[in-house]
Design a protein that fits this description.
binds protoporphyrin IX containing FE, 10 strands
């Protein structure tokens, strides 16, 4: 076991790798390969906050961190002195009031809330939504065909679909979708703390109204189920509002980027696109490969080290932060033969694109369904589909957490 060596860089100036830098966003993989090779457990001092963040790029280490009970999510499990720098960073988060949800909680609170939510994500829900998701994806693609010529895949198809599915799951009225979309866009895209906070507060007021309605007139949906649990004392109002909020965000931008990144990789790998056309039944494994090769979530939520842990031969001290980089784990040659090859028939494909362990994505089945429906419909409808821009000109999200393009302009020829 190696203990953290004094020779490792201690200040931002000396750092050999900068995983937080926006310049790596269009193609972060060369950097991750270098990090995995030279510093797989990499100590990075955030220039913004001065906090120590340990980036993990090996599959085994990422898995290990996501399973370790000494690596957690709740700051109140650290003594005040060690928690202070993180608390300052969290205070700068304009949505700090919406953190009482499964993403940010450890057992027992995590277990309690996840149990309340899980039944709504089972096979029955997916079966009920399946026909509808395929129909809506087909209609959106028809709309793109009617407009003809060129279209932005993100705006015309990837954005409208997930908000509809999450709203349906929660039982929110279809008429509310535009407002939900607006808040999500403000929160993810505005880059302005004041606007983000305002959107968050508007959402809180909206969610409180809808929860009260459901308590008065329950239906057969997730929100009614959670409102009932609130009445029975199983979940607090703050936890409920925060959970609804997180579902909207978790189910929205991630799915948008899976549809966008997946279609982009097919277009960058025309032989794989031809293969999918010849064998449409490969759509399921194509979606898995899109999640592995260039998935929409760069890293899991950063985790707090609650007791000194040894990961990959390095001791990480209590109080530091660990960042399991899912995108990097998914290209680890120790697990995936020829990791940089995009192979829509890859099997086995045990990627970590939906996370791992107790926080494994609750919406995975819904996400798979939507991506398969959207990409499948596009490929069937437009035999001559092509990128309308040079891939080098695509604008990627600046943050590594959500990994995707803001626009994906396509040429939509009906002929091959
Ligand atoms: C958790 C990925 C879509 C709901 C997660 C995690 C990942 C992930 C990596 C674990 C995060 C962590 O450990 O910090 C994705 C991807 C998606 C997707 C790649 C789409 C392509 C969805 C959808 C929903 C959803 C559609 C719901 C409608 C959740 C929830 C959690 C979660 C509730 C938290 C589970 C927990 O903490 O116990 N997702 N997600 N996700 N996801 Fe997804």
């Amino acid at each position: 076991m190696t203990v953290t060596t004094p020779g490792q860089p201690s200040g931002p100036a000396a750092q050999p790798f900068d995983p937080a830098a926006a310049r790596h966003r269009p193609d972060p993989h060369p950097l991750f390969h270098r990090m995995r090779e030279h510093a797989p457990v990499y100590r990075y001092v955030s220039p913004a906050s001065g906090r120590v963040l340990w980036y993990l790029t090996r599959y085994a280490d990422v898995q290990r961190a996501l399973l370790d009970p000494d690596v957690g999510r709740q700051l109140d499990r650290l003594p005040p002195g060690l928690a202070a720098p993180h608390r300052r960073a969290e205070l700068r988060d304009p949505l700090a009031m919406l953190r009482r949800n499964v993403f940010h909680l450890d057992p027992p609170d995590h277990t309690r809330i996840r149990r309340l939510m899980a039944p709504a994500f089972g096979a029955r829900t997916v079966a009920v939504l399946e026909e509808r998701v395929h129909r809506v994806a087909g209609e959106l693609v028809d709309g793109m065909a009617a407009a003809g010529g060129e279209a932005d895949l993100i705006r015309e198809l990837a954005l409208p679909l997930p908000v509809l599915v999450v709203a349906e799951l929660l039982g929110l009225p279809p008429g509310d979708r535009a407002r939900l979309r607006g808040w999500s866009d403000e929160i993810v895209g505005s880059g302005d703390a004041g606007r983000v906070r305002r959107a968050g507060l508007e959402f809180v007021a909206y969610a409180n109204e809808r929860i009260d309605e459901r308590r008065a007139r329950p239906g057969d949906d997730l929100l009614s189920r959670l409102a009932e649990a609130e009445q029975a004392g199983g979940i607090s109002r703050a936890e409920l509002v925060s959970s609804v909020f997180q579902l909207l965000l978790a189910g929205d931008e991630t799915t948008v980027n899976l549809i966008g990144n997946g279609m982009l990789e097919l277009l960058r790998h025309p032989r794989q696109l031809d293969r999918l056309r010849a064998r449409p039944e490969l759509i399921g494994s194509m979606v898995e490969e899109a999640l592995r090769y260039n998935g929409p979530v760069g890293h899991s939520r950063p985790l707090y080290v609650l007791a000194d842990v040894e990961i990959g031969g390095t001791v990480i001290p209590r109080g530091d932060v660990v960042v399991p980089v899912l995108l990097a784990a998914n290209r680890d040659p120790a697990v995936f033969p020829r990791p940089d090859v995009f192979d829509i028939g890859r099997s086995p494909n045990r990627h970590l694109g939906f996370g791992h362990g107790a926080h494994f994505c609750l919406g995975a089945a819904l996400a798979r369904l939507q991506a398969a429906a959207a990409i499948g419909a596009l490929v069937r409808r437009f035999p001559g589909i092509a990128l309308a821009v040079d891939p080098a000109d695509l604008e990627w999200t600046p943050d590594l957490f959500l990994h995707g393009v803001r626009r994906l302009p396509l040429r939509l020829r009906l002929e091959a």
